[in-house]
Amino acid sequence: MNQQPAIAPSSSRAAAQSHFRTLRPGTPFQPRIDALARTNDWYNWAGYRAPHSLWDEELEYFAIRSQAALFDISPMTKYRVEGPDAEAFLNRVTLRDVTKLRPGRVHYTAWCDDGGFVLDDGTLFRLSPTRFRLCSQERHLPWLLDSAIGLDVAVEEETEAVAGLALQGPTAFAVLRDARFAGVERLRLFDIAEFPHDGDTVIISRTGFTGDLGYELFVPAEHALSLWDRLMLGGELRGIRAIGYTALNRARLEAGLIVANADFTTSGHAVRPNRLRMPDEIGLGFMIDLEKGHFNGRRAIVSARAKKRLRHVLVGLEIEGNIPAEHAMVYYRKSQEVGLVSAAMWSPMAKRNIAIASLARPFGDTIVDDLWVEIYAMRELQYQKLMKRAKVVPRPFIKLDRRTANPPADF
After folding, report:
1. What CATH number did the domain enclosing 328 receive?
2. Are residues 96 and 170 both part of a single domain?
3. Cα of 104 vs its chain's centroid, Å
């Protein structure tokens, strides 16, 4: 009797493990990024091979603040939401009032589970009265599809089909103008518009994650390399440089912006109930619009506010000294543990030692004095414990007029 050889269980496990370890070949921009990579410093961003740095993480940061920096945002999850009920659908699942978002505009928003805990934050682009693009850190397609039942709306992930670039820094506008994107000077902060490119169109928004003058560009994947080359040619005399995530992360911290599953744990990832966060607990309470009717988590959010059950607060800290307090514990009167620093750096722009921290109320809320952070600094192969005074300060830590200037400045 002929039998097919059975696959050994160990082989099956090895194949499965290999599947989860293997990253996608790369984004549509990967050939250009690989050609510029000198540090060979990569990480896994949503299954894509993405650079921590390309040539020098310190100089890449200064490229953002003094010239124009190009960063590949293609791995960011992107959803097309389209149909007669698209507005009503997005108004029900997100916190902000989508009826106030005009075509040609984008806003920063978030969405919650039924318990009022944040599932994720992201940006919502209104491309037409019935067509939107929702961008996020995590993947939410099953949840979005379930939420759309009974509505005349189509939700489709388009992460691989749409390539994206962030162009950030004082010369960003000049790069786009020199790359012959006619009319780009008319884009105000959070505006979006379509421009001709390579026989198709590119969507450009005046948005970014750096707190600087900046733009984000979205193009069909097949036109990605021609867009990259067009920007590089246009920015040749404006100091354009490709960068990795480390530099971008430093800039976003100076801008006081938060990152999902870094500064807060999304409800889809949280294992312990006390790690869950409501919008008010991570500085996103300003998004909540109670005038628009029902939305996901509304009842729980209203109840938590009324019964004063908000247990945490996300704050900006200024810390004495110049040693970054990354993941440092925060104490009250040097003895009572009250929170944790999630991101920290010495800011070259603010000339301050800054941090974002999650604290247990009332600390950081009504009690803001006598706060300390515990830093362990390496000194000649030994850790030295340092207790440094911290004070609660507003975010953003820096505010650049060029980010909002109209028309944008020609540096």
Report:
1. 2.40.30.110
2. no
3. 21
